[in-house]
Amino acid sequence: MEYLPPLVVDPPGEVRHSIVWLHGLGADGSDFLPVADTLRLPPELGVRFVLPHAPRIPVTVNGGLVMPAWYDIHSLEPGAPVDLEGIRRSAVYVQSLVRQEHERGVEPGRVVLAGFSQGGLVVLAAALDSPDPLAGVMALSTYLPQAVMPEEALPRSIFQAHGRLDDVVPFDSGLAACERLRAQGHEVEWHEYDMAHSVCAEEVADIREWLLRRWGSPGDS
Fold first, then answer.
1. Coil, helix or strand for 196?
2. Among the options 72, 166, 173, 186, which is catalytic?
C-alpha cells in the first residue's frame, strides 16, 4: 500500500514533541490542519504536527465507492465483520511514522498519537500493539472492537472524547471502547459533549489542557 507524504507543520523553533493526527473516513490530512493554530500550544513546547493521508480504497458500506479510508467498513450494524487486515496495515504505517519522528530527533515518549473516527481506532490499534513508550493517545469520536485488542499491551494514557448526539459512531460504542481499555489497565480520561460526529470548541480546550499535562511545562526536559 502506498501512502502520500504526510502534511507536516513544524514549530518556529526546535522540535521537541510531535503529534501524529489521523483524519476520519473520506477526508485527508488537511482536515485537521487548522488544529495547529486552534490548540494554541506554547511555542516553547516545540510541537510538530504530522498529518498523514489515508490511501484511497473501496469502502463496502458506501457501495464500494473509492475514497480515503484507513480500512474497509463492511457495515455499521453491531456484529458486522471487521477489516482486521486493513486496521493492522494502517496501524503498522502509524508505527512507522513514530519511528520516523525518532529518526528526526523526537523520542517515542514525546509523541502523541491522535485520531478522529476511523483514525481514532487506528491510533488505538497502533498504540496497543507497539512496544514503544508514547506520550499518550487521543481517541476522538471512535470505537474499538474487541477483535482489535491484543491480549496484552503497555499501559497507555488515553484522552477519549465522544459526542452524545453522534449519529455515525454511536455514543454507546465509544463508552464500550472506554470500558474495554480501562479493563485492560489503561488510564482513560473520558470526555463527552453535546455534539454530533464532530469536534467542538470545548473539546479542543480539553485536548489542550490534557496535552499540557502530558508534556509538562515548556521548560521541562
1. coil
2. 166
Dist. CA 88–CA 93, nearest whole Å:
9
| pLDDT tier for residue 217 given thresholds of 50, 70 and 90 | low
Please report, for residues 101, 106, 112, 121, 123, the alpha-carbon distance to residue 97 in angstroms, rounded to integers and kept in the order given: 6, 11, 11, 16, 11
Answer yes or no: pTM beyond 0.85: yes
Find the helix or strand (DSSP H, E) in which 116 lies. Answer: strand 111-116
C-beta separation of 125 from 89 below 8 A: no
- Give the start-to-end residue ranges of the domains of the chain: 7-215
Backbone angles phi, psi at 113, to 5 degrees: -100, 130
Q: Give the tens place of pLDDT for each residue, 105-146.
A: 999 999 999 999 999 999 999 999 999 999 999 999 999 999
Active-site residue, selected from the candidate residues 18, 90, 117, 130: 117
**CA–CA dist 79, 60 (Å, integer):** 15
Instruction: Give catalytic status of residue 197 as yes or no.
Output: yes
Kindly name the residue from 10, 28, 191, 197 that is annotated as catalytic: 197
Is 117 a residue of the active site?
Answer: yes
Do 204 and 39 meet the contact criterion of CB atoms below 8 Å apart? Answer: yes
Which residue in the block uniquely carries the three cell numbers 483514525? 119
Pick the CATH number of 7-215 from 3.40.50.1450, 3.40.50.1820, 3.20.20.70, 3.40.1050.10: 3.40.50.1820
pLDDT per residue as tens digits for the range 188-216: 999 999 999 999 999 999 999 999 999 97
71, 56 Cβ separation under 8 angstroms: no
